[in-house]
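re: that complex we talked abt at group meeting.

here r the seqs, copy pasted straight from the sheet so there may be weird spacing, ignore it
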Amino acid sequence: MSKTSLLYQRQLLQYLADGNFYSGQWLAEQLGISRTAVANYLKELKQHGLEIFSVKGRGYKLAYAIQLLDANKINSLQLAAGAQILVQHITDSTNSQLLQRLQAGHKMLPGSVIVAEAQSAGRGRRGRSWYSPFGANLYFSCYWRLEQGVPAAMGLSLVVGLAVCRLLQSQYQLEAKVKWPNDIYVNDKKIAGILVELSGQADAGCDVVIGIGLNIGMPDQSRQHIDQPYTDLRTETLQQVDRNSLVAELQRQLICALQEFAAAGFAPFASEFNQRDVFMNRKVSLMAKSSIIGICRGVDTQGGIIIDSGKSTDVYYGGELSLRSGE
Ligand code: ATP
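got the structure back, here u go
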């Protein structure tokens, strides 16, 4: 996107963010551009998932008021010394952006974060996509160093899930659950997903990019893009969410949990994970090379999933496995 488009879109959003009607003519005058240009900039935002209504005689209006991400506000709340926060408007994927920076040799402090208003190519695991409409949610990636090396990545991903649950509990009193290995559920619906990606050597300490997509206020049209039950903070809390303080608080909770993990590994987190396991003692099917059916018994001290098939109890490790309800 050109710098001019970015600038005009941000300016239009400063007005529209409050959820009130603004006429195309009035907006055009404020920005010193034509009405057609206003219509085109808004059309582009609509294509990125922002819900905008246009009503003849009244103008434009957002379906819901939104709070734009603001690097200065986040920085003023930031509790992690020295770690950077970078805010992007529309990006491909915040994880890809961080990985590119690492590959280009940029030096960053662990705990540094990129957030964006929208992702055009948000990713889940194994090529699945993460629907990332504009201004609606949190698309957050954090850089970290995994000194224990690649084998510890599994535990790290589970710890990230717990950090998100702790955040939802402390800020919104939500009973958040984890679905091994990388999803967060509230009321049996997915509210957040985690994608941990590694960069660097496999045997030594490596750079890690931790991506978190947390739904705050999903537009109605999201249903067409997501093939499983999902929810968001607006539905679950009926509160207005301050996205800037949520970014700062998520970064704080995450760094706290990651430091604990760096010092002591996954074992101290295992019982907390098991208390929050959405499938604990429920029938599951684990999609590996073939499908394994049994009762989920939580995780072991390494973060592997324990499944009781009736004949034996086995532990499964590895990021390529996928757990589903067996009921
Ligand atoms: P698993 O990772 O256990 O195999 P998964 O189907 O949840 O299961 P992920 O890679 O974690 O897979 O997430 C991608 C999936 O999440 C998509 O295929 C889609 O069904 C769903 N999804 C995409 N965007 C969102 C969103 N914003 N909120 C909730 N769910 C989403």
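couple things i noticed - The mean pLDDT is 93. The CA atoms of residues 80 and 252 lie 6 Å apart.
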